[in-house]
Amino acid sequence: MLPPTCQNLNPFILLIVLLELLQLPLIVYAGLPPAEYERLQELKAVEMSKTITDADRSSYLSEDISNLMNNAKKISNVGKLSKDIYTLEGNLVMKVLSSKVSKDEAYGEAKALNMLQELEKSGRVKIRSRIRRMYFPAIIMKKKKGISLFSSDVYERANEKERKAFKTSVIDKVCEEVARIAQSSGILHYDNNPDNILLQFTGTSITSVELIDYGPPYTYIIDKNTDKQKIVDVCAASSVWTLLW
């Protein structure tokens, strides 16, 4: 059993602490279990970066948009594959991708957001790295409303039974939203870690679910005609629910 001081911590944070103590890199968990790959293959899901064409490469991330950094305000730099995240005027968010992201993975995220009609602009920005100023791919999108479950006051005030009920409700609602988006856009969101799920509440009821982060490696192209229940089932069977939730 965890000590009382750790029992209310975000499970994702606890995972990172545990990996640090064991001196294991977080990337150990980047691969999916074989059973999950099989389920995705049954859906004929194709990882987004594998779909990039020359037309995509000429359509995204080519414009120098460094001037937008003049009014940008950094809000986060914690992503494994995002260098920094900034807010811009007009309720926009700019995600600057890490140099760890391959070119086609960066194109893939821009393409996915465009297919979702959520892409405002893409390009490259010049930012100082450790040694010199260099260009990084940048993607601009509308800022979405909501808060992660574990950061919400509703969850903080809940008892253990109520927290379990919240988690069950979130899984159901997220997988329904994953299926809806897949059937409307052909994009399968599979990176359903707590920070990528934004919720809104009325009282203690979840009234809105928003999915964010369509970056690599867990964003896929899928046939829009795929059976809804199959998509829901694959989503609900994901190991992320037991690993990070």
Describe the structure.
With 245 residues, the protein is an alpha+beta fold. The chain has 8 helices and 10 strands. The strands form 3 sheets. Strands 2-3-4-6-5 form a 5-stranded antiparallel beta sheet, with helices on one face. A hairpin with a 3-residue loop joins strand 3 (82-88) and strand 4. Helix 6 (160-185) crosses helix 7 (228-236). It is globular and about 50 Å long. The two termini are 17 Å apart.
The portion of residues forming beta strands comes to 15-25%
The span between the termini is 17 Å
Assembly annotation? single chain
Identify the overall geometry: globular
Report the structural category: alpha+beta
The gyration radius over C-alpha positions equals: 19 Å
Mean pLDDT, nearest integer? 87
Low-confidence stretches: 1-6, 19-30
Largest sheet: 5 strands, antiparallel
The largest beta-sheet arranges its strands as: 2-3-4-6-5
Helix content: 25-40%
Summarize this, please?
With 245 residues, the chain is an alpha+beta fold.
Helix and strand topology:
Blueprint: H1 11-22, H2 34-42, E1 46-47, H3 54-59, E2 73-76, E3 82-88, E4 92-97, H4 103-115, E5 119-128, E6 133-142, H5 153-157, H6 160-185, E7 187-189, E8 197-202, E9 205-211, E10 219-221, H7 228-236, H8 240-243
Protein name: Protein kinase domain-containing protein
Domain Protein kinase: 37-245
Keywords: Membrane, Transmembrane, Transmembrane helix
Give short descriptive properties of this protein.
Prot_kinase_dom, alpha+beta, transmembrane helix, 5-stranded antiparallel beta sheet, 3-stranded antiparallel beta sheet, transmembrane, Protein kinase domain-containing protein, Kinase-like_dom_sf
